[in-house]
Amino acid sequence: MSSTGVRFGANYTPSQGWFHHWLDFDIDAVRADLDSIAALGLDHVRVFPLWPLFQPNRTLIRPRAVEQLVALADAAAERGLDVNVDGLQGHLSSFDFLPAWTGTWHRRNIFTDPDVVAGQEEYLRTLAAALADRPNFLGMTIGNEINQFSGPPHPDPDRIGPAQAGAWLRRLLAACEEGAPGRLHLHAEYDAAWYQDGHAFTPEHSATIGAVTAVHSWVFNGTAQRHGRTGTATEHHAAYMIELSKAWADDPHRPVWLQEVGAPAPLVPAEHAAAFTEATVANALDCSDVWGVTWWCSHDVSRSLADFPELEYSLGLLTNDRQVKPAGEAIRRIVADRRGRTYAPPVRTTALVVDVPARWDGDAAPGDAPEVADRSTCAPGGAVFEAFARLTADGARPTTVLASRAGDAAHLAARGITEVVRPEEVA
């Protein structure tokens, strides 16, 4: 860990075969990839087993696949890299990876079916236990943005409500803890959890369940389209998500992990990727209690692979043949500049009021949860989102507070908030 306490890493995308590399696992190719990542000065990687390959049958977790994961972690350790493991893949770069025992003739809800959830528990427990004695094992993330399976816009969702989502998260995190006690176990959702009305996974889940809050910042969600590549809202989107998450956190200093952030073309053209990277990271590090920044991703996707959305091919810090790109050079400079320095961002004393429910404890059926409304006020174009951008453009450094806590003197004092502003008051 750097002296600032902030971790810098990359989401590891293998340069050969993308995540299909597990089918033809080549430890020498992995070592070369990890060498190129370590050369950027990074201290950790987030890695992605493919669930159907590791657990092709509900009662078969392939020992050889687990051994390969451990070998990857050991190779990372040799290069000074810590490892976080995402278990349920789940969803990656527009492709879904679900085992055959959850679909078609065996179709079962992956969040609520007792047999499926028990299988998930055993799988996550097994991966965690296999790595529990490795000093460089950070912990498990339940899965990558698996909330996208819970409702629209997924074309074939396994619908659940907020209470069911919360129960599922707690149960699977308990399995991770059983496998590797005391490690950093968490869950990670894409931004529907923060921005989409009616979504089963809620801000409360992200900000209160698990060891840290994870946010995934992608400006192709309407931010860059609305504000442009150099707009305040675009360059501060990651910082906004970090500060937005704090509105729901019970712990005033709960760590927040910027676990995914990238420079998506063409909204961020290749020639501007380095500038976007530098601005995004600098603004994120102007937030308190940031655990780390993990860029998406390490290496480009090979053009030999078909059917990815165009932007997915060019998100790497390094090319497919492991050459450093301008965004990678930017990350290397940032890490080198911060090495040996201590810096604590000033407290953000102005809080923007978020008038969205603090809790979703009801047992409403999927699609019948009126109390889950209003999150769109936090999304691009929403009142909270746009007010935050205007305050930031005017030189303020806002954070957020729930309306239900805006009059709580003890809560405000614990966070250092001295001024509370409603969105409609921001000109």
From TrEMBL:
Gene3D superfamilies (alphabetical): Glycosidases (3.20.20.80)
InterPro entries linked to this entry: GH
Superkingdom of origin: Bacteria
SUPFAM superfamilies hit by this protein: (Trans)glycosidases
UniProt-recorded name of the protein: Glycosyl hydrolase
